[in-house]
Amino acid sequence: MNRKDLIAQLESNPTPWDIIIIGGGATGLGAAVDAAARGYRTLLVEGADFAKGTSSRSTKLVHGGVRYLQQGNIKLVMDALRERGIMKQNAPHLVKNQSFIVPNYKWWEGPYYGLGLKVYDWMSGSLGLGTSEWLSTEEVLRLAPTLDAEGLRGGVLYHDGQFDDARLAINLAQTAVEQGAVVLNYFKVSGLLKANDKIAGVQVRDEISGKAYEITAKVVINATGVFSDSVQQMDDPQKPVSIAPSQGIHVVLDKEFLPGEAAIMIPHTDDGRVLFAVPWHNKIIVGTTDTSVNQIDAEPIAQEEEIRFILEHAARYLTKDPARSDVKSIFAGLRPLVKSTAKKTAEISRDHSIIVSDSGLVSILGGKWTTYRKMSADVINIAAVQGALPYQEPVTKELPIHGAMPTSDYSTADYYYGTDKTELLQLIDNQPALGVLLHPKLPYQQATIVWAVQQELCMTVEDALSRRTRALLLDAQAAIEAAPLVAQLMADTMQHGPDWIEQQLRDFHEVAKHYLPNG
User: Fold this and answer.
1) Could you report the per-residue pLDDT of 89-107, keeping only the tens digit for each?
2) Cis preceding-peptide flag for 14 (omega within 30 of 0)
3) Which of 59, 384, 385, 474 shows a CA-CA span of 20 to 30 A to 446?
4) What would the mean pLDDT of 50-74 be, rounded to a whole number?
């Protein structure tokens, strides 16, 4: 992807576009892939970076949702399990089979969770990832030797999916472009165009160059997640809010706290949520919390009580109690839950909703990463009708995502490049200095930064260290220390001067300090 080329396509394309999508997270990018693959002339604009918000801050799971099964939301679980299988089929370089252990400390937990997970297996059908099984105490400790053995009565092992969320977002952007869409990050919508009280397009500003555009379309989709209300209120200032945001945080620890390959799932915490401890990029992610928030921020910050909650719950189940000093990074995200009458956000459904306003703005709300493809198909079906577009069947069920290739080794830092890995290695062959690591505590070579700028619309140091690599999430202090080198590599590639480097480092440090355990 080349930004200049994409802007040239934007400026030379006859208007109106068939579809303009606002929002470059999971849903917006999925919708761009779906629309372009059907042959619709599609433009996606994102005000910040792709997956800057919720879509890069998940628990990194592709799952049906064991908790939703407990709640009796059978349809959501069935849809999600089906989509989990399709996601692994279409992006095998990013989605892997992950085994989970549910440790049992009470006599009834084994049969209760074991039978429930057998139902989960059955619901997966032919797209299942593996069969659940009961484990003895000895088998549990062999697979997860750092679990607290006191009172342990065995466990249940089951299978779900794991992925890298921000990397899938980048690959979706690339896929959309390959299908003929124009996708642009740092293109911020400032208003909606109307003709005869009907939505006719968007006013947008290129945040990099400062250039403003008015772009018309037959239909506009609002796929901005937690920011959906702000776009809906551009259309109708009297529109009541439809999003009930909930904050979840994750704490990242060294692998020594859970050295095996299996993840741990604790089905019931003090606030009623499921707690996961999941191996990811040779670290352990522990989360998540569920905290109602009133303010929607682009950079949500973990609250002190949330951090304490995670560490205290982890200490209950691990032989070594994680201390604040053991934390490598803390990241927070906001869930775009659809407003309901539920008393707790943990009880609000992750089902998605699609709203068409009187003026024709199509807004998609809620949902989760696992079901992004189905959400995308649903919203494009409705948008096609709203825009009087010729109906085309969705084709994404069997459409490979950019980079797709069978992968058996997920242990290396560059596994998620898939078919791009060959060209990345060629970059190092041509410039051996790019084979040097960014930092001794980070697994990324300097070539990944140059590649991100050249091929992945990476515009800022934060883009590079948070989403093109996952350095900020894996080790915040190391990412901060690597930032000057990253800024220099980007400046050399983009032909920016020292003032750009200085500003980028200030901006990155302002964000990164909140990922530090004592930030």
Assistant:
1) 999 999 999 999 999 999 8
2) no
3) 59
4) 85
Is residue 402 within 8 A of residue 171, CB to CB? The reply is: yes
Domain 86-163+244-343 in this protein, CATH class = alpha beta
Q: DSSP letter string over 103-143?
A: E--STTHHHHHHHHHHHHHHHHGGG-----EEE-HHHHHHH
Beta carbons of 134 and 110 less than 8 angstroms apart: yes
CA–CA separation, 143 and 137 (whole Å): 10
User: By percentage, how much of the chain surpasses pLDDT 90?
Assistant: 81
CATH no. for 415-515: 1.10.8.870
Domains 3-54+167-241+347-398 and 415-515 share a fold: no
How far is residue 421's CA from residue 427's CA, in Å, rounded to a whole number? 10
CA distance 184 to 211: 13
Q: Superfamily for 3-54+167-241+347-398?
A: FAD/NAD(P)-binding domain (3.50.50.60)
pLDDT surpassing 60 at residue 329: yes
For the entire predicted model, the pTM comes to: 0.95
For the chain, domain boundaries:
3-54+167-241+347-398, 86-163+244-343, 415-515
> What pLDDT band is residue 126 in, cutting at 50, 70 and 90?
confident
Cβ neighbour number for residue 340 with a 10 Å cutoff: 12
